[in-house]
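REVIEWER CHECKLIST
Item 1: Sequence provided? yes
Item 2: Single chain? yes
Item 3: Sequence as submitted:
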Amino acid sequence: FRARLQAVIIDEAHCVDEWGKDDFRKQYRQLSSLRGYTSYSIPFLACTATCSTHTFDVLWDTLQFGYRPFWGLDVGCDRPNLLFDIRPI
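Item 4: Structure as written out by the authors:
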């Protein structure tokens, strides 16, 4: 397993903060234990479209990113293909 592992990818990573707070999915806050099964050379990738500063801090600590190289991409929230349309019923 370890010899073939290329990366650990957490999609919808904001759930680590939202769901890991209590007993609902407390294991989410224990994802750092995966570091014990992998080496620090295996990259961890956290993907989310909704990441507040607080959630970012939780992910950083929970996934033990520490001082390793970091690359982030923030594309903002301008989505011209989406709109909210409110109409009376």
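Item 5: Key structural point noted by reviewer: The helical segments are 14-20, 34-37, 53-62.
Item 6: Recommendation: ____
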